[in-house]
Design brief:
The chain has 327 residues and is an alpha+beta fold. It contains 16 helices and eleven strands. The longest helix has 18 residues, at 309-326.
């Protein structure tokens, strides 16, 4: 395979050159849809031909992998959460016993109908100082990340900032689920390297080394630019589309250590901001060539270099269709 073959198969596997009509199937096969900004979920789904009716409640939003928010089918949670069984950074900072005790207290209040960070701040403000409250009820998650990784809470829906109790506790170990999750990764994101898989799954140090000890003979492999790529399944019967809209944090860009297959180095700073945000983009022949967004219900498209007017119009029309479908 060459670089073009890699891009063609990735776009096929990620449903960028063929449709996936069912949202739950798409979210399952892609192992979650990135939802740091919740509207990226319908963006990503519509781009891939999925029906988004009921999407706000059809998926469960919670923290996975690299501490990022994803929308996933509820039934997938126990397996995905087993990948990182050791709680959150609160366990390291305060100790597992203290973090778990506070988590249990939060759950008791949730059983009585308390669901928002603001309500919890009021309840605990007489017992703890501002620094403690900021850590525990931080907008970045705090104690709710701790509980989410245990499969005990998740966001109420894809657009809500409040939480609900769930029952999705992992019943397997990381060693149990890692072979299957690696296979799912290569099936959806391949061709990819073991370093790509480790990045996507949020594995560091010894956990990443464990990938090399898994049975890898079942995968097809090839060498390209000094790296070994793994993939599954036949070659695609679809071509790289002339134009593709990509969502913010699109899997084609955010799921690999080396993003150069789809993102030219000269455009990286315009697409992945210093804050870490990855903005929605327009790809021409599989390569990012501009950015797009929706502002005040209007399409905004900006290419990085001159393109024919018909290309600009087509990109704007595609964004307009997304606006219409989201109403």
């Amino acid at each position: 395979m060459n670089a073009t073959d890699v891009l063609r198969k990735r776009m096929h596997n990620l449903y960028l050159s063929r449709p996936c009509p069912e949202l739950d199937v798409l979210a399952h096969e892609l192992m979650g849809l990135h939802s740091w900004f919740y509207r990226n979920v319908p963006f990503s789904a519509l781009i891939r031909g999925a029906d988004i009716a009921g999407w706000k409640h059809g998926l469960t939003k919670t923290w996975l992998y690299r501490g990022t928010l994803h929308g996933v089918p509820y039934d997938d949670l126990p397996e995905l959460l087993a990948l990182h069984p050791n709680g959150s950074w609160l366990s390291d900072h305060f100790g597992r016993e203290v973090a778990d005790a506070f988590a249990d207290e939060v759950v008791r209040y949730m059983e009585d109908g308390v669901y928002s960070r603001a309500e919890f701040r009021k309840i605990f403000r007489d017992r703890y100082d501002d620094d403690w409250l900021e850590m525990m009820f931080s907008p970045w998650g705090g104690i709710f990340v701790h509980l989410a990784r245990q499969g005990r809470v998740a966001f109420r829906d894809m657009t809500s900032r409040d939480f609900d109790l769930i029952s999705a506790e992992p019943t397997q170990t990381q060693a149990d689920v890692l072979p299957g999750l690696l296979r799912r990764y290569f099936a959806a994101y391949g061709p990819a390297t073991l370093a790509d898989a480790a990045w996507f799954l949020g594995l560091w140090r010894d956990d990443a080394k464990a990938l090399k000890r898994l049975p890898l003979d079942e995968y097809e492999r090839f060498e390209l630019n000094g790296a070994t790529y793994y993939h599954i399944g036949p070659e695609p019967d679809t071509d790289i589309p002339h134009m593709t809209l990509l969502s913010g944090f699109d899997p084609l860009l955010s799921s690999y250590v080396d993003r150069s297959a789809a993102l030219p180095q000269e455009h990286k700073a315009k697409v992945i901001l210093k804050s870490g945000i990855c903005v929605p983009t327009v790809a021409l022949d599989g390569r990012v060539a501009g950015v797009w967004n929706i502002k005040k219900d209007q399409p905004v498209v900006e290419f990085f270099s001159e393109v024919p007017d018909r290309v600009r119009r087509e990109a704007a029309e595609r964004v307009e269709r997304i606006i219409w479908r989201m109403k």
